[in-house]
Design brief:
2 domains, OB fold (Dihydrolipoamide Acetyltransferase, E2P), alpha/beta, 17 strands, disordered C terminus, five-stranded mixed beta barrel, 402 residues, globular, 23% helix
Length: 402
Amino acid sequence: MLKLRRAIVLDAALPTLDGSSDGLGPTQAPEQELVVTLAGGDGARRAAIADVTLVGRAEPGDEVIVNVQALDLGLGSGGFDVVHVNLTRGLAGDGDPGAGVMKLNYTSLQHAVKPVEDERLRLPIERPVAVLALHGQLAAVAWSYARQAPGSRLGYVQTEGGALPGGHSRTVAMLRERGLLAGHLSAGAAYGGEGEAITTAGALHHALNTLGWDAAVCGPGPGIVGSSSALGHGGMAALDSAHAALALGCPTLLVARMSSGDGRERHRGISHHTLTVLDLLLEPVTVAIPAGMRSPVGADLRAGLGTVFGAAMPRRPMKHRPALALDVERPVRITRHDWRRAAVDLPAFAAAGLPLSTMGRGLTEDPLFFGAALAGGTALAELSDAPSSALPDAESGVSGAA
């Protein structure tokens, strides 16, 4: 059940961005960072966030109700309290008079939105979609795509699987400000994007047909719901997203979650999250891996990585590096996909000034994670250029540097 407590706001950052994508100057950010203390508590200062689009802006001295469960549990990706309602000033919201569809249905935070779904179905779309496993892949995919396809319009569809509020991602805000994303739609249970879609399919259809995006990247918000089970994790949202893209007639690419630095065996090499999705997909998709890597199914995924990543590889003794072995129970189901190799440029990406963190690890601590995402962006640009009837086969690779 909900774990709600009364609290007093001690400090409230101004909910503004440094700039906006349209060059009109400072704009109000959808999320506000707060410092609160629990009423009747020991006076300890606690980090909190307020979704301004839902509960309004807070000021020091405001009395608020906060959900304290994530911080009390010590969750790494949710280690803060969340404002449920502002008792001082947040009880008089007017809502959007033009909205008519609910999100967060039948919860205390249900609110009306105006859906973007188009009335007429126009298929096939034949514009490519990249499906993410983690939000941490987004910056690398967008940067790599823009480098390979300058002037093309790539947009982001946020799905469930991680954070649901669209305003929680600083990465999205930065990519929009720098022109690396053409737009941001929130689909399904996710909310707070620049447009609201009832379904992922509806978001992709609207974005690629009506908004005119040249390609879309689709995946969860920051953080991820997880467990060690095969199906009990937020990465499974990629299965639904990929099926939606395939059904719409979009060339579909799965951005592989890979790691050379994760301490958990199930995520080293190609993560079990990605392998499970590739196993369960009803149709083949494209999967990109960094150039220099051997077959995606084999006992030695480290072969060739030194050539690809060079000095970016961790300078630890080999005996202390996690093995990159791949254990696939149904290899035929994995190898049926269109595997491609793509050149990546980690030093250039590192110098781009974009977010470089996954699960607390940076680029030098986990170069394979970022290399795989960069490869995905390069391959997505290649899919954007190639007619659906003349896509290169898996052996042709992807040329050019990411």
